[in-house]
TrEMBL record:
This is peptide-methionine (R)-S-oxide reductase. Keywords: Metal-binding, Oxidoreductase, Zinc. GO terms for cellular component: cytoplasm. It is an enzyme of class 1 (oxidoreductase). GO terms for molecular function: metal ion binding; peptide-methionine (R)-S-oxide reductase activity. Residues 9-133 form the MsrB domain. It catalyses: L-methionyl-[protein] + [thioredoxin]-disulfide + H2O = L-methionyl-(R)-S-oxide-[protein] + [thioredoxin]-dithiol. It comes from Corynebacterium lowii. GO terms for biological process: protein repair; response to oxidative stress. The gene is msrB.
Amino acid sequence: MTDFKLITDAQWRERLSAEEYRVLRQAGTEAPHVGEYTDTTTEGVYSCKACGTELFRSTEKFESHCGWPSFFSPKDTDTVIERDDYSLGMKRTEVLCASCGSHLGHVFAGEGYNTPTDLRYCINSISLSLEEKPVE
Ligand SMILES: [Zn+2]
């Protein structure tokens, strides 16, 4: 099995497209409302584009109208890492893939969305790959 934590920067550049690399490995953000999965309601599981680990499910995806795919919870709590991010002069919480350390997006709390957690995992479409399949 590949240990994705050992992949070098040069290897990531080969494995990913330029835009995928910018978002996943350089914590970039794709433009709002243009991502492949922003409004997707297809039943299935979203995996990390970089390493294939299953991260989010359609059952936790909701309409946030923020311009990016939004989930109120990850598939499992240990599949993502959350850490403080002070870029852009404010405190946000960055969300990363626990398996490969790639940047996924940010999570915001207490915005008043009518979801079970009142969390919004705001995730770049380009960081994800959707596999259509039944979700329990
Ligand atoms: Zn990953």
